[in-house]
């Protein structure tokens, strides 16, 4: 991992990031790391990283921007929704940006790497994500903004699945999410299906799903190499699309 030093200006970072995307890191890895501070620079840096195609993750109290060697992506228009998911979807509805703190809390409690509580979405990183919407001036490119996505059980009003994602131009990237599969089995698939249809209606060209996993390829996700991902980001990051609230 290579460090982005605090002394490096955003202008310098802006010049270097395309070279890293095109040529790779010296160690052949996928991660950079930078300080995760509660200041004006951190959300500006996150917006800049997204603009250049990085996924801004966190860990060890640091910001960990990831540029995948392979990325799983799809067009929302090409999403495959199975019959079982269609049947289950009838009792649920989708919302956008209706319950950010609740979605973050559920992710932190229900999504982890090795043990409960082992979640890379910390409170500090979640606050930095939200602050990206306040970035102004030259670092406000592509309308980069983070969103919460919620799936609700209509009858009970319970939140059953959701995710944090972000937009840049006409690309939507899923960042991390949760599902209450013990009480509401299958709702993770319902949330993805509802979100995919909504991304299509909102005019998004690419849905970025991050690393490859079986459930992503089952709905239509396809692996692309870093060079192809970079090309798509550069061609679509100035396009206009807005993740609106469903009516």
Mean pLDDT: 96
SSE string, helices as H and strands as E? EHEHEEEHEHHEEEHEHEH
Q: Helicity range of the residues?
A: 25-40%
Largest sheet: number of strands, sense, barrel closure: 7 strands, mixed
Low-confidence stretches: none
Using DSSP, what is the number of strands?
A: 11
**Alpha plus pi helix count:** 8
**Largest beta sheet: strand ordering:** 6-7-8-9-10-5-11
Shape: globular
Distance between the termini: 44 Å
> What is the beta-strand fraction?
15-25%
Helix/strand class: alpha+beta
Q: Radius of gyration in whole Å, from Cα?
A: 17 Å
Structure description:
The structure is a single chain. This protein is α+β, with helices and mostly antiparallel strands and 247 residues long. Helix content is 33%, strand content 25%. The protein has 8 helices and 11 strands. Strands 6-7-8-9-10-5-11 form a 7-stranded mixed β-sheet, sandwiched between helices. Strands 1-2-4-3 form a 4-stranded mixed β-sheet. The mean pLDDT is 96.
């Amino acid at each position: 991992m290579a460090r982005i030093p605090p002394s490096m200006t955003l202008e310098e970072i802006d010049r270097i990031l395309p070279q890293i995307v095109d040529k790779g890191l010296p160690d052949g890895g996928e991660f950079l790391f930078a300080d995760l501070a509660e200041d004006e620079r951190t959300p500006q840096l996150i917006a800049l990283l997204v603009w250049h195609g990085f996924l801004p993750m966190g860990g060890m109290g640091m910001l960990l921007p990831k540029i995948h060697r392979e990325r799983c992506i799809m067009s929302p228009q090409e999403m495959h929704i199975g019959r079982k998911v269609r049947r289950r979807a009838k009792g649920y509805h989708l919302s956008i940006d209706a319950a950010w703190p609740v979605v973050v809390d559920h992710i932190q409690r229900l999504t982890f790497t090795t043990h409960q509580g082992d979640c890379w979405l910390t409170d500090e990183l979640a606050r930095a994500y939200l602050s990206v919407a306040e970035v102004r001036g030259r670092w406000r490119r592509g309308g980069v903004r983070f969103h919460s996505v919620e799936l609700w059980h209509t009858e009970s009003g319970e939140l059953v699945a959701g995710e944090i994602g972000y937009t840049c131009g006409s690309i939507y990237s899923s960042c991390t999410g949760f599902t209450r599969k013990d009480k509401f089995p299958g709702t993770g698939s319902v949330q993805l299906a509802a979100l995919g249809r909504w991304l299509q209606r909102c005019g998004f060209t690419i849905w970025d799903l991050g690393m490859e996993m079986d459930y992503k390829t089952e709905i239509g996700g396809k692996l692309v190499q870093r060079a192809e991902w970079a090309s798509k980001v550069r061609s679509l990051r100035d396009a206009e699309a807005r993740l609106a609230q469903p009516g």
